Amino acid sequence: MFHKSQQLGSARQATIWFREERIPVPHAKPGTAGREVTWHLPSSGRIRQMLRNPCYGGAFAYGKTAPHTVIEDGRARQRSRYRKPQKEWKVLLIDHHSGYISWEEYMENQRRLEANAAWSDGEGSGAAKLGSALLSGLLRCGRCGRKLQVHYSGNGGKVPRYTCRGDRGDRGSSACLTIGSLRVDRAVVRSVLAAIQPAGIEAALKMSECTQAEGDEKRKALELALERARYESKRARRQFDAVEPENRLVAGELEVCWNHALEEVAALEMRLTALGERPAS
Predict the structure, then answer these.
(1) Rounded Cα–Cα distance for residues 248 and 146 (Å)
(2) Residues in a beta bridge with 38
(3) Which of 57, 88, 143, 204 has the most crowded CB, counting CB atoms within 10 A?
Protein backbone atom coordinates (compact mmCIF):
# COMPACT_ATOMS: atom_id res chain seq x y z
CA MET A 1 0.00 0.00 0.00
CA PHE A 2 2.81 2.43 0.88
CA HIS A 3 4.64 1.68 -2.35
CA LYS A 4 1.49 2.05 -4.45
CA SER A 5 0.46 5.37 -2.89
CA GLN A 6 3.96 6.73 -3.47
CA GLN A 7 3.96 5.46 -7.05
CA LEU A 8 0.54 6.90 -7.92
CA GLY A 9 1.04 10.14 -6.00
CA SER A 10 -2.14 10.22 -3.90
CA ALA A 11 -4.17 8.22 -1.41
CA ARG A 12 -7.23 8.48 -3.67
CA GLN A 13 -5.47 6.90 -6.65
CA ALA A 14 -4.10 4.13 -4.43
CA THR A 15 -7.63 3.46 -3.17
CA ILE A 16 -8.94 3.26 -6.74
CA TRP A 17 -6.17 0.79 -7.67
CA PHE A 18 -6.89 -1.50 -4.70
CA ARG A 19 -10.62 -1.44 -5.36
CA GLU A 20 -10.30 -2.03 -9.12
CA GLU A 21 -7.96 -4.97 -8.51
CA ARG A 22 -10.25 -6.16 -5.67
CA ILE A 23 -7.37 -6.52 -3.22
CA PRO A 24 -8.52 -6.27 0.43
CA VAL A 25 -6.63 -4.62 3.26
CA PRO A 26 -6.83 -5.35 7.01
CA HIS A 27 -9.25 -3.56 9.33
CA ALA A 28 -9.17 -3.93 13.11
CA LYS A 29 -12.60 -5.01 14.29
CA PRO A 30 -14.10 -2.31 16.56
CA GLY A 31 -14.22 -3.18 20.24
CA THR A 32 -11.49 -5.86 20.08
CA ALA A 33 -8.46 -3.63 20.81
CA GLY A 34 -6.92 -4.81 17.52
CA ARG A 35 -7.02 -8.51 18.44
CA GLU A 36 -9.50 -9.35 15.65
CA VAL A 37 -8.80 -8.36 12.07
CA THR A 38 -11.14 -8.46 9.09
CA TRP A 39 -10.23 -7.91 5.44
CA HIS A 40 -12.21 -5.59 3.17
CA LEU A 41 -11.71 -3.45 0.09
CA PRO A 42 -10.32 -0.16 1.38
CA SER A 43 -12.00 3.22 1.46
CA SER A 44 -10.00 6.39 0.86
CA GLY A 45 -10.36 7.13 4.58
CA ARG A 46 -8.76 3.80 5.48
CA ILE A 47 -5.81 4.42 3.14
CA ARG A 48 -5.29 7.91 4.59
CA GLN A 49 -5.52 6.47 8.09
CA MET A 50 -2.71 4.03 7.32
CA LEU A 51 -0.58 6.76 5.72
CA ARG A 52 -1.06 9.07 8.72
CA ASN A 53 -0.40 6.44 11.40
CA PRO A 54 3.19 6.93 12.68
CA CYS A 55 3.41 3.35 13.97
CA TYR A 56 3.98 2.16 10.39
CA GLY A 57 7.04 4.45 10.29
CA GLY A 58 8.53 2.81 13.39
CA ALA A 59 7.40 5.49 15.87
CA PHE A 60 5.31 5.43 19.02
CA ALA A 61 2.99 8.41 19.36
CA TYR A 62 0.42 9.45 21.93
CA GLY A 63 -1.88 12.45 22.16
CA LYS A 64 -2.23 13.02 18.40
CA THR A 65 -5.83 14.27 18.64
CA ALA A 66 -7.87 16.55 20.86
CA PRO A 67 -11.63 17.12 21.20
CA HIS A 68 -13.48 20.15 19.90
CA THR A 69 -15.04 21.87 22.91
CA VAL A 70 -18.16 23.98 22.46
CA ILE A 71 -20.34 25.88 24.91
CA GLU A 72 -24.00 24.82 24.94
CA ASP A 73 -26.48 26.14 27.48
CA GLY A 74 -23.63 27.52 29.52
CA ARG A 75 -21.81 24.16 29.72
CA ALA A 76 -18.68 22.95 27.96
CA ARG A 77 -19.32 19.91 25.75
CA GLN A 78 -16.90 17.85 23.70
CA ARG A 79 -17.71 17.18 20.06
CA SER A 80 -15.71 15.55 17.27
CA ARG A 81 -11.94 15.26 17.63
CA TYR A 82 -9.33 16.94 15.44
CA ARG A 83 -5.74 15.99 14.63
CA LYS A 84 -3.15 18.18 16.32
CA PRO A 85 0.08 19.35 14.61
CA GLN A 86 2.94 16.93 15.17
CA LYS A 87 4.84 19.39 17.40
CA GLU A 88 1.86 19.38 19.80
CA TRP A 89 1.72 15.58 20.25
CA LYS A 90 2.21 14.58 23.88
CA VAL A 91 4.62 11.72 23.12
CA LEU A 92 6.62 10.92 19.97
CA LEU A 93 9.37 8.26 20.09
CA ILE A 94 11.05 7.87 16.69
CA ASP A 95 12.79 4.53 15.92
CA HIS A 96 10.73 2.94 18.69
CA HIS A 97 10.29 -0.28 16.69
CA SER A 98 10.81 -1.71 13.23
CA GLY A 99 8.33 -0.10 10.82
CA TYR A 100 7.04 -0.98 7.38
CA ILE A 101 8.61 2.25 6.10
CA SER A 102 11.31 4.60 7.37
CA TRP A 103 10.51 7.76 9.31
CA GLU A 104 11.70 9.83 6.34
CA GLU A 105 9.22 8.03 4.08
CA TYR A 106 6.48 8.63 6.64
CA MET A 107 7.20 12.37 6.70
CA GLU A 108 7.26 12.44 2.90
CA ASN A 109 3.81 10.83 2.89
CA GLN A 110 2.53 13.58 5.21
CA ARG A 111 3.88 16.28 2.89
CA ARG A 112 2.26 14.56 -0.08
CA LEU A 113 -1.10 14.35 1.69
CA GLU A 114 -0.93 18.04 2.57
CA ALA A 115 0.08 18.99 -0.99
CA ASN A 116 -2.84 17.02 -2.43
CA ALA A 117 -5.37 18.72 -0.18
CA ALA A 118 -7.69 21.18 -1.92
CA TRP A 119 -6.79 24.35 -0.06
CA SER A 120 -9.40 27.12 -0.03
CA ASP A 121 -6.85 29.77 -1.03
CA GLY A 122 -5.82 27.81 -4.10
CA GLU A 123 -2.11 27.97 -3.26
CA GLY A 124 -1.65 24.23 -2.72
CA SER A 125 -0.22 22.24 -5.60
CA GLY A 126 -3.29 19.98 -5.50
CA ALA A 127 -3.95 16.57 -6.96
CA ALA A 128 -5.37 16.03 -10.43
CA LYS A 129 -9.15 16.45 -10.55
CA LEU A 130 -11.83 15.28 -12.94
CA GLY A 131 -12.42 17.27 -16.12
CA SER A 132 -10.88 17.76 -19.55
CA ALA A 133 -8.68 20.75 -18.69
CA LEU A 134 -5.09 19.67 -19.36
CA LEU A 135 -3.31 22.33 -17.29
CA SER A 136 -5.46 22.32 -14.15
CA GLY A 137 -3.40 23.60 -11.22
CA LEU A 138 -0.36 24.41 -13.40
CA LEU A 139 -1.06 27.92 -14.71
CA ARG A 140 -0.58 31.26 -12.96
CA CYS A 141 -2.02 34.64 -13.76
CA GLY A 142 0.36 36.96 -15.65
CA ARG A 143 -1.05 39.95 -13.79
CA CYS A 144 -1.23 38.99 -10.11
CA GLY A 145 0.66 35.65 -9.99
CA ARG A 146 -2.18 33.63 -8.45
CA LYS A 147 -3.05 30.16 -9.69
CA LEU A 148 -5.73 30.02 -12.36
CA GLN A 149 -8.88 28.11 -11.47
CA VAL A 150 -10.80 25.92 -13.91
CA HIS A 151 -14.47 26.64 -14.61
CA TYR A 152 -16.65 24.61 -16.97
CA SER A 153 -19.46 26.05 -19.05
CA GLY A 154 -21.20 25.64 -22.41
CA ASN A 155 -21.98 22.34 -24.16
CA GLY A 156 -23.38 20.71 -21.05
CA GLY A 157 -20.73 22.19 -18.77
CA LYS A 158 -17.85 20.42 -20.51
CA VAL A 159 -15.92 23.38 -21.96
CA PRO A 160 -13.14 24.50 -19.57
CA ARG A 161 -11.87 28.05 -19.06
CA TYR A 162 -8.95 29.20 -16.92
CA THR A 163 -9.96 32.05 -14.62
CA CYS A 164 -8.19 34.19 -12.04
CA ARG A 165 -10.33 35.99 -9.48
CA GLY A 166 -7.31 37.70 -7.99
CA ASP A 167 -7.61 40.61 -5.56
CA ARG A 168 -10.79 42.47 -6.48
CA GLY A 169 -10.05 45.37 -4.16
CA ASP A 170 -8.78 47.60 -7.00
CA ARG A 171 -11.13 46.36 -9.73
CA GLY A 172 -14.56 46.16 -8.21
CA SER A 173 -16.22 42.87 -9.16
CA SER A 174 -14.42 42.15 -12.44
CA ALA A 175 -12.25 39.06 -12.85
CA CYS A 176 -8.48 39.48 -13.10
CA LEU A 177 -8.06 37.21 -16.12
CA THR A 178 -10.02 34.57 -18.03
CA ILE A 179 -8.95 32.60 -21.10
CA GLY A 180 -10.28 29.61 -22.99
CA SER A 181 -8.47 26.32 -22.56
CA LEU A 182 -8.58 24.90 -26.09
CA ARG A 183 -5.81 26.96 -27.71
CA VAL A 184 -3.60 26.94 -24.63
CA ASP A 185 -3.92 23.17 -24.14
CA ARG A 186 -3.23 22.48 -27.82
CA ALA A 187 -0.13 24.71 -27.81
CA VAL A 188 1.25 22.91 -24.76
CA VAL A 189 0.51 19.49 -26.29
CA ARG A 190 2.37 20.43 -29.50
CA SER A 191 5.38 21.66 -27.51
CA VAL A 192 5.47 18.58 -25.31
CA LEU A 193 5.19 16.16 -28.23
CA ALA A 194 7.94 18.00 -30.12
CA ALA A 195 10.20 17.81 -27.06
CA ILE A 196 9.67 14.10 -26.37
CA GLN A 197 9.63 12.84 -29.96
CA PRO A 198 13.35 11.86 -29.97
CA ALA A 199 12.77 9.81 -26.83
CA GLY A 200 9.73 7.98 -28.21
CA ILE A 201 11.38 4.54 -28.40
CA GLU A 202 12.90 4.91 -24.95
CA ALA A 203 9.50 5.94 -23.58
CA ALA A 204 7.86 2.91 -25.20
CA LEU A 205 10.42 0.59 -23.59
CA LYS A 206 9.94 2.29 -20.26
CA MET A 207 6.18 1.87 -20.57
CA SER A 208 6.67 -1.83 -21.26
CA GLU A 209 8.82 -2.14 -18.14
CA CYS A 210 6.19 -0.30 -16.08
CA THR A 211 3.47 -2.59 -17.41
CA GLN A 212 5.51 -5.64 -16.42
CA ALA A 213 6.16 -4.18 -12.97
CA GLU A 214 2.46 -3.43 -12.57
CA GLY A 215 1.63 -7.05 -13.39
CA ASP A 216 4.21 -8.28 -10.89
CA GLU A 217 2.72 -6.03 -8.19
CA LYS A 218 -0.78 -7.36 -8.85
CA ARG A 219 0.45 -10.95 -8.72
CA LYS A 220 2.34 -10.36 -5.46
CA ALA A 221 -0.70 -8.71 -3.86
CA LEU A 222 -2.97 -11.55 -4.98
CA GLU A 223 -0.51 -14.17 -3.73
CA LEU A 224 -0.48 -12.52 -0.30
CA ALA A 225 -4.28 -12.32 -0.30
CA LEU A 226 -4.48 -16.01 -1.27
CA GLU A 227 -2.06 -16.94 1.51
CA ARG A 228 -4.23 -15.08 4.01
CA ALA A 229 -7.43 -16.67 2.61
CA ARG A 230 -5.97 -20.19 2.84
CA TYR A 231 -5.01 -19.54 6.45
CA GLU A 232 -8.55 -18.38 7.24
CA SER A 233 -9.95 -21.45 5.48
CA LYS A 234 -7.78 -23.84 7.52
CA ARG A 235 -8.67 -21.96 10.70
CA ALA A 236 -12.40 -22.22 9.92
CA ARG A 237 -12.03 -25.97 9.30
CA ARG A 238 -10.26 -26.48 12.63
CA GLN A 239 -13.05 -24.62 14.41
CA PHE A 240 -15.70 -26.72 12.63
CA ASP A 241 -13.91 -29.98 13.47
CA ALA A 242 -13.54 -28.98 17.12
CA VAL A 243 -17.27 -28.31 17.76
CA GLU A 244 -19.41 -30.97 19.38
CA PRO A 245 -21.81 -32.63 16.88
CA GLU A 246 -24.71 -32.13 19.29
CA ASN A 247 -24.28 -28.35 19.11
CA ARG A 248 -25.93 -28.05 15.70
CA LEU A 249 -26.48 -24.28 15.81
CA VAL A 250 -22.79 -23.50 16.36
CA ALA A 251 -21.77 -26.19 13.84
CA GLY A 252 -24.07 -24.67 11.23
CA GLU A 253 -22.63 -21.18 11.69
CA LEU A 254 -19.06 -22.51 11.53
CA GLU A 255 -19.87 -24.45 8.37
CA VAL A 256 -21.15 -21.27 6.73
CA CYS A 257 -17.92 -19.46 7.67
CA TRP A 258 -15.85 -22.36 6.33
CA ASN A 259 -17.74 -22.39 3.01
CA HIS A 260 -17.30 -18.62 2.66
CA ALA A 261 -13.55 -18.98 3.25
CA LEU A 262 -13.33 -21.77 0.65
CA GLU A 263 -15.20 -19.61 -1.88
CA GLU A 264 -12.76 -16.76 -1.32
CA VAL A 265 -9.79 -19.11 -1.82
CA ALA A 266 -11.28 -20.42 -5.07
CA ALA A 267 -11.97 -16.89 -6.34
CA LEU A 268 -8.40 -15.75 -5.64
CA GLU A 269 -6.96 -18.86 -7.28
CA MET A 270 -9.03 -18.14 -10.40
CA ARG A 271 -7.83 -14.53 -10.48
CA LEU A 272 -4.19 -15.62 -10.18
CA THR A 273 -4.67 -18.13 -12.99
CA ALA A 274 -6.32 -15.49 -15.18
CA LEU A 275 -3.49 -13.05 -14.48
CA GLY A 276 -0.93 -15.62 -15.56
CA GLU A 277 -2.83 -16.34 -18.80
CA ARG A 278 -3.36 -12.66 -19.67
CA PRO A 279 -1.23 -11.74 -22.71
CA ALA A 280 1.43 -9.08 -22.16
CA SER A 281 0.56 -5.58 -23.44
Answers:
(1) 70
(2) 27
(3) 57
| Residue 228, CA distances (Å) to 28, 148, 262 in order | 15, 48, 12
Q: Do residues 68 and 78 make contact, with C-beta atoms less than 8 angstroms apart?
A: yes
Give percent of the chain above pLDDT 70: 85
Class of residue 153 by CB neighbours under 10 A (exposed 0-12, middle 13-18, buried 19+): exposed
Question: Considering only CA atoms, which of 228, 233, 270 is closest in space to residue 27?
Answer: 228
Distance in angstroms (rounded) separating the CA atoms of residues 64 and 45: 17
The 10 Å Cβ neighbour count of residue 141 is: 20
Asked whether the predicted pLDDT for residue 34 surpasses 60, the reply is: yes
- Does 173 score more than 70 pLDDT? no
Name the CA radius of gyration of the chain, rounded.
Answer: 26
**Res 174: pLDDT:** 59
Query: Does residue 225 register a pLDDT over 80?
Result: yes
CA of residue 147 relative to chain centroid, distance: 25
- Give the three-state DSSP class for 37: strand
Across 245-274, average pLDDT: 85
Burial of 88 (0-12, 13-18, 19+ CB in 10 A): exposed
Residue 220 confidence (pLDDT): 85
In single-letter form, the type of residue at position 211 comes to T
Q: What stretches of 153-199 show up as alpha helix (H) in DSSP?
A: 181-196
